[in-house]
């Protein structure tokens, strides 16, 4: 349970369930003093007659994404130590950060974000790992793959390393939050362009916009919003224009700079031409013809 998601979770756990066994994943880390806001690994007995702690945890997970459910043949102290070590994550080659895999929104993105080898070794100490997905109102999980004892320890020695694209996938698990924010952006900035469009249609357009943007190697969230905005406000097929594509595919320009540089440098005459050559079926296309 991620205690940071609730103001009173830690105090409730220790007062209402004084006999509960738990370990802080921040123990023996620089964040050890943040115990009341730490991720806690709590030992549960599914055969116990008193289900009050289960009901309490379900209440917390439905109030805010904060609870994941695990099964493991390792005991509480050993499993806690293993998961604490898996908090270590390396980005940008040499920058160490905390991987908040105990947040369900991150956990549910791990399966698709990690490579097969990373997933195999990272999840190995756990035989079952699930979390409640509030939008679909159902439990979803990660299915671990069998490995060896040496494999289980792999990421206890070397921190997992995630590139920018993997981090974007974790930030927008299943991309649902991203699609919602793109739609909200349209509603705030282009209400006339989406007038009469139902929610399901807008979601399909948002999915297509993100897929098209990714097709050019652009995965930054701000740029995905910008790309979707250009589709809606300028032309659904704006990226079919040769000059636009020359920017979006220019490997000498950093992916996160391509859209802004294109907007700054594209002549007004080209923008008018793009607006005159709209193809509305492109709203739903995940990739335009070459």
Q: What is the distance, rounded to the nearest whole angstrom, between the alpha carbons of the first and last residues? A: 48 Å
Strands, total number? 8
Which parts are unreliable, with pLDDT below 50 for 5 consecutive residues or more? none
Please indicate the count of domains: 2
Strand content: 5-15%
Query: What is the N-to-C order of secondary-structure elements (H for helix, E for strand)?
Result: HEEHEHEEHHEEHHEHHHHHHH
Q: Provide the gyration radius in Å.
A: 23 Å
Quickly give the structural class: mainly alpha
Main sheet strand line-up = 3-6-7
Please summarize the sheet with the most strands: 3 strands, antiparallel
Secondary structure tally, helices: 14
The percent of residues in helical segments reads: 40-55%
Compute the average pLDDT.
Answer: 89
Characterize the overall form.
Answer: elongated
Write structural notes for this entry.
With 290 residues, this protein is mainly alpha-helical. The chain has two domains: 3-162, no CATH class; 174-284, no CATH class. It is 46% helix and 11% strand. The protein has 14 helices and eight strands. It has helices at 9-16, 52-63, 76-85, 104-113, 116-122, 149-152, 154-157, 164-171, 176-189, 199-215, 221-233, 242-248, 255-265, 268-276, and strands spanning 22-24, 40-42, 68-71, 88-91, 95-98, 128-133, 138-142, 160-161. The chain has a three-stranded antiparallel sheet with strand order 3-6-7, covered by helices on one side. A three-stranded mixed sheet has the order 5-4-8, with no helix packed on it. It has a two-stranded antiparallel sheet with strand order 1-2. β6 and β7 (138-142) form a beta hairpin. α9 (176-189) packs across α10 (199-215). The longest helix is centred in the last third of the chain and has 17 residues, at 199-215. It starts with 8 loop residues before the first helix and ends in a 14-residue tail after the last helix.
